[in-house]
Amino acid sequence: MKGVKIIIMGSGFSSLSASCYLASRGFDVTILEKNKTVGGRARQLKKDGFVFDIGPTFYWMPDVFERFFNDFNKSVSEYYTLKKLNPAYQIYFGKQDSISISDNFEQIKKTFENIEKGSAEKLQKFIDKAHRNYSIAIKDLVYKPGENVLEIINRKTILKLYEFILTIKNQVSGYVKNEKLQKILEFPVLFLGAKPSNTPSFYNFMNYADFKLGTWHPQGGMYEVIKAMTDLALSLGVQIITDNEVKYIEIENKSVKGVKTNSGFFSCDILLSGADYHHTETLLPRHLRQYSEAYWNKKTFAPSALLFYVGFNKKIKKVSHHTLFFDTDFEIHAKTIYDTKVWAEKPLFYASFPSVTDNTVAPSGKEAGIFLIPIAPDIEDTPEIRAHYFDQLITRIEAITGESIKNDILFKESYCVQNFKDDYNSYKGNAYGLANTLRQTHVLRPKLKSKKVDNLYFCGQLTVPGPGVPPSLISGKIVSDLILKNIA
Question: Which residues share a beta bridge with 322?
Fold first, then answer.
């Protein structure tokens, strides 16, 4: 496809993925990034010798990353070093009451059995089913463009239809009765951006990714993956221009002719947006937008987040690389996100301490901490609210772990709804895109190709296949295949 010019808006995982596939097929590809650095929501913060991933911190589904690099006759190991975490993560349920999840499935079964007699055998059956679903998802679902339902209609998927009616919460409760074990099995659903009670049980394939494929960490942080993909894109001839925000999409006869940015006009034959889907359509004349404001407003969005990036002046002993604080009722918290859309009085939260296992992200003898509270999109965001929840978060960590940390804080930076809007033009300041609910799966998600503009395409977490880093890599691949198919 030599001579065919493609402009890609944004430089997150899906955009970088698409740029590599398209450039390898001969397209002339240019990425235009609004911010000063590449990476989209996976950018990096450096301060006083500390290094923080601003966005994703979990490296799950390593097979998807390996498949991406293999497609270019490369391997992950050529770009960054992976370490399998043990424990994969730790969950606190109350004061000095925690469960650590091993990197070994047989050990995980023993952990379950020690808590609930007979649960090891049931867990094996649950994960066997999750494994079958994972295989179906990877082979028959997630690498499909979502143009029509016939893509996914086959004997395997028809047999699984009932699992799109049953919910994760229903299914999990049928295997284990202990509330702590139920929370552990429901936890991966958080990566899909929806409540366990509202997510089809088919998505239990995330439990297989969790318990069998493991939790990994790229030395240096998740931004190492962005750097690797950027290096690959550049080696394939992709041009990347940062600090260049698209202000308007120029259309002629229902076809994109180019984009206007803060630095000038860029012509193209095809425009692919890895930027926020809703925002991208606001750059079009109203009659060429596929989805109305009412459409977006009715959608179930994954949560936004209040994040803190904290430098500590000592090592913290009673936490793991990934630590979850479930000392509160998730259902009550979830209602504040999806129903009442208010701040939770006592939210659950997640903490990442990457320096526990990676000495490159904090000075010697110090600890880097990343904290995340899931919140409703478009919720009120003020400095006073951020300060209140930071104080609560630190106080709860001290009470739960029995370890003093407040007086060892060197600095903190925060990130919340308004930052997501300002930095990424994120619809209502959402952090993860559209939730994977039954009514927002596959063909029911916003389309990869515009129905009203002939040469406009989309990729990323608001379209197929869904939220998360591995799905974003896949999104870049399938939209590239679709472009190639439509041009051929």
Answer: 352
Tell which residue, 17, 22, 31, has the closest CA to residue 69: 17
Going by C-alpha positions, the residue among 181, 225, 239 that lies closest to residue 32 is 239
Residue 164: what pLDDT?
63
Percent of all residues in the chain with a pLDDT value above 90, rounded to a whole number: 85
Neighbours of 431 (CB within 10 A): 27
138-162 burial, b for 16+ CB within 10 Å, e for fewer? bebbbbbbbeeeebbeeeebeebee
In tens, the pLDDT along 405-436 reads 999 999 999 999 999 999 999 999 999 999 88
335 phi and psi, to 5 degrees? -60, -35
CA torsion angle for 31, 476, 309, 327 (degrees, to 10)? 160
Structure tokens at 402: 């029995």
Cα separation of 191 and 433, whole Å? Answer: 11
Residue 141 pLDDT: 83
258 forms beta bridges with 250, 267
In whole angstroms, give the CA distance from residue 79 to residue 178.
Answer: 42
Distance of CA 142 to the CA centre of its chain: 15
- One-character DSSP codes across 421-479: HHHH--GGG-SS-B---GGGSGGGSPPSB-SSSTTEEE-STTSSS-SSHHHHHHHHHHH
